[in-house]
Amino acid sequence: MADNDEHTTFDAVSAGASATYPMQCSALRKNGHVVIKGRPCKIVDMSTSKTGKHGHAKVHLVGIDIFTGKKYEDLSPSTHNMDVPNVSRNEFQLLDIDDGFLSLMKEDGSTKDDVKVPGEDLGKQIETDFKSGKDLIVTVISAMGEEACISFKEAPK
């Protein structure tokens, strides 16, 4: 093997955390997060059934998609592992609103222009406050390769 060939197998590996991590179903808690049907969800309700004659206790999970608000349900044996999404929340200063996207300033001073203006009342309120000259800080939640603005506040003077 030539010297320059030994590093090629790892070039495609990204440096960063995995999108999800496994957790035993019985260890999940209400208001925590879980992946149901491939979507990152916040657990809003969960109940455990007793063990049957031939089996394990089952956990019934009800979750709300953290990006779309859609409700999902799942039934899983309590001993099985389920994926838990790595969810992060970051705050950014709003610089501009352009063509349906928020222009945000990162901590290092660079800009981030790939977060969509949220739908419905939240997006309208952000646009109204921004046009009236207020300095706004928006909260962006990210998980499993998706991002969404979920709230905002006026920047302290």
UniProtKB/TrEMBL annotation:
Q: Which GO terms describe its biological process?
A: positive regulation of translational elongation; positive regulation of translational termination; translational frameshifting
Q: Cellular component per GO?
A: cytoplasm
* Top-level taxonomic group: Eukaryota
Q: Where in the cell is it found?
A: Cytoplasm
Q: Which GO terms describe its molecular function?
A: ribosome binding; RNA binding; translation elongation factor activity; translation initiation factor activity
- List the Pfam families hit by this protein, alphabetically: eIF-5a, IF5A-like_N
Q: Which UniProt keywords apply?
A: Cytoplasm, Elongation factor, Hypusine, Initiation factor, Protein biosynthesis, RNA-binding
Post-translational modification summary for this protein: eIF-5A seems to be the only eukaryotic protein to have a hypusine residue which is a post-translational modification of a lysine by the addition of a butylamino group.
All copies of domain Translation initiation factor 5A C-terminal, residue ranges: 86-153
Q: What is its main location?
A: cytoplasm
SUPFAM superfamilies given for it? Nucleic acid-binding proteins, Translation proteins SH3-like domain
Which family is it part of? Belongs to the eIF-5A family.
What does it do? Translation factor that promotes translation elongation and termination, particularly upon ribosome stalling at specific amino acid sequence contexts. Binds between the exit (E) and peptidyl (P) site of the ribosome and promotes rescue of stalled ribosome: specifically required for efficient translation of polyproline-containing peptides as well as other motifs that stall the ribosome. Acts as ribosome quality control (RQC) cofactor by joining the RQC complex to facilitate peptidyl transfer during CAT tailing step.
Q: What is this protein called?
A: Eukaryotic translation initiation factor 5A
Q: Which organism is it from?
A: Gonapodya prolifera (strain JEL478) (Monoblepharis prolifera)
